[in-house]
Amino acid sequence: MQTFIQVNIENTTSFSFQRPLLSWLKARNPEMAVLDLDSFSDEMLVKQAGRLIQEAVKYAVYFKVAEPDAKLGAAFKLLEEIIGEDKPGLILLEGTHARLTAILQSRPHLQFNTVPNPEEVKQHLDHYFNPAN
User: Fold this and answer.
1) What highest taxon heads this organism's lineage (predicted)?
2) For the chain, what is the domain count?
3) What pTM was computed for the model?
């Protein structure tokens, strides 16, 4: 199983039912498990994300930071799951967040990349999940 998780890091809650990146990825990889959460997600959703990572053959997590000083909240709990699992995976960061960057860069088992926009996120995901294309 392959897994993709999008994490929106913001200081306010946002309810967007349309996540174009998730739709695009699901269309290209119908069997993939996809999930999105944010800084305010409940513990059950974070645990579900952690289970998906544990069960995945390949996983990628995309942190989209809206504000550099935003509190990580639930995203930090997911980060603890990723670090605790010590399992190789692709981690993408769009935006600036000093604490998140420092934690992720210090983990040699993670393939960590910063990306300037969603189009580059797509390129990284396509290369990671579909290397033959």
Assistant:
1) Bacteria
2) 1
3) 0.93
